[in-house]
Design brief:
The chain is α+β, with helices and mostly antiparallel strands. The chain is built from four helices and eight strands. 26% of the residues are buried.
Length: 167
């Protein structure tokens, strides 16, 4: 894992099991912003899912901490069946109370640094079709529509692809 990134009062580091409750709370706050009629209840046990993500030896969960508060997080790993040079960004969230403060950009840069260190060349993600804010953010970071996963009629997610720059 890359070393902690420290800039002023902001630290980007690997999440630890003791803070999974805070990770789940941030995840819920962020997801609520792009579901206008409420976050769908699909039966996912997010506490268990985040515990598993933090504990995975083949994945990473980065978190952004400012003044002791968790304000951003990202979870990524190579998805099953994908080439070893591919990484999937499964979760990427910034606390809505901290939007437009550079947290997402700094967190994305930390992800890219880790992907490069891990020898990844391609990153993929899916973003909710109604989450225009996230889609615009990813476009600014260099993500583009994934030609291998074009949108299907009635699809709830858009697939994006990113070429990890050589270091």
């Amino acid at each position: 894992m890359i070393g902690d990134r420290v800039k002023g009062d902001r630290v980007i580091r690997t999440a630890v099991p003791a803070e999974v409750d805070r990770v789940v709370a941030l995840h819920a706050r962020a997801r609520a912003t792009y579901y206008p009629v409420g976050v769908p209840q699909d039966g996912t046990d997010w506490l268990a899912a985040w515990r598993a993500a933090v504990g995975r030896p083949d994945g990473h969960v980065l978190c952004v901490v400012e003044r002791g508060g968790l304000v951003g997080l990202a979870s990524f790993r190579t998805p099953e069946g994908a080439p070893a040079h591919t990484v999937k960004l499964f979760q990427f969230h910034v606390d809505p109370d901290h939007w437009r403060a550079g947290i997402g950009t700094a967190l994305h840069a930390a992800c890219v640094e880790q992907w490069r260190a891990d020898g990844r060349r391609t990153a993929v993600l899916d973003v909710h079709v109604d989450n225009r804010r996230a889609q615009a953010f990813y476009a600014r970071q260099g993500w583009s529509p994934d030609p291998e996963n074009p949108p299907a009629e009635g699809e709830h997610h858009v697939w994006l692809r990113y070429t990890v720059p050589a270091g």
